[in-house]
Amino acid sequence: MIVCMDPQINKYLLINEAKLGLTIAYPDSIKNIIGVNMAEVNGTVHKRVRGILLSLIGPAAHRDRLVLKMDKCMRSFLHNWAGKTIDIQQKARQMAFMGSLEQIVQDEPNSFYESFEDLFVKMFSGSMSPLINIPGTKYYQGLKARVKLNALLEELLAKRKASSVTHDDFLEQLIRNSDSNYNSSDEEIIEQIITILYAGYESVSSTAMMSVKYLHDNPRALQAIREEHFALQQNKRPEELTNWNDYKKMSFTRAVIFETLRLANVVNGLTRRTTSDLELNGIIIPKGWKIYLYKRETNLDPFFYQEPLTFNPWRWLEKGSESQNYNMLYGAGGRECPGKELSISRISLFLHHFVTKYRWEEVEGNKLQFYPRVIAPEGLHIRVSEY
Ligand code: HEM
């Protein structure tokens, strides 16, 4: 494997991926558990699968429906936390998972969501574990959980197809799509559902958790984000849902999310494989080799970001900062994250309710780990009170 830490070359590789004959190359543990979808497809199949995904979560759907629905979901999720000590890592994971699942499948009994969550967490943990397929290992349990998830989803698909009742969710759209231009099989629909849940799980939850952490440690930023959200609430009745226009006004919140992603990077690098010998700056990378486009250090490079270790969301309010060549927080080129806006709006709405409803204090003794994943190994415990 070649490891490349030069942001210019990395950007060039991502933008010209198809032309250079690069294909996606996720680790086998992810590929085997998550399936053939985004983790394996290239070329025209990739374009088609990506098209289906964008029809669900792209800008149009986002503007017309998703923000309102997510706001409704966050209101009930963040209800009644005052007076409690909670693990914000666990809450953020629940928020990321249930937020996605309720968009995908609505109107099912609680038992469905609970069994789904239990299996999903096992599957996720298996995909992050060493590839040892013997009973008792996390990888083994992850594979088993994936088989059970398939069975659960196959049953649900059959039930939906046999029923004339309509539902306002992604599954309904995926079934309708399968009858029309996209022509997806049941297997593909299931892969799509798993992809949305998987890709938006740890990425969203760890960013939400870390933004709470950074806001706690930086009172001036906390004050600024509260002002932004109280100003939005001033023009609305309490029961009125936050809409797309409100979301577009959350510019400081967006900056907090970018700054959190920069400092606590959830995606260290991206992996590609060459399909023919590739010459880069006079060096030949042989056919079949992997290239690891390592981007973590770029985010902390003083050449690009002044005082790179300081949490300074204001830097993202400068014009053009998000579109700088060295910013690859959401990837670049034909595989740039299709869930980018969805993830930003989900975390923004979470923060909207969290900072306006509550104050919080960290409980002593929390530990954080930044590499290889951003996690609090024993949880991030906070004491919450009414604002
Ligand atoms: C803070 C949250 C997120 C971050 C930082 C993030 C980051 C990324 C990055 C860096 C890539 C590029 C991968 C590559 O080129 O190999 C990517 C791809 C992808 N992301 Fe996200 N993501 C986030 C949230 C989401 C969400 C919520 C969804 C789901 C709806 C999602 C769905 C995807 C998919 C399907 C791909 C593969 C795209 C393709 O291969 O065409 N992501 N993401």
From TrEMBL:
It comes from the Eukaryota. The keyword Iron applies. One of its GO terms (molecular function) is iron ion binding. Heme binds at C337. The keyword Transmembrane does not apply. Its cofactor is heme. Keywords: Heme, Iron, Metal-binding. GO terms for biological process: brassinosteroid biosynthetic process; brassinosteroid homeostasis; sterol metabolic process. PANTHER family: CYTOCHROME P450 26, CYTOCHROME P450 85A-LIKE. Belongs to the cytochrome P450 family. This is Uncharacterized protein. It comes from Lupinus luteus.
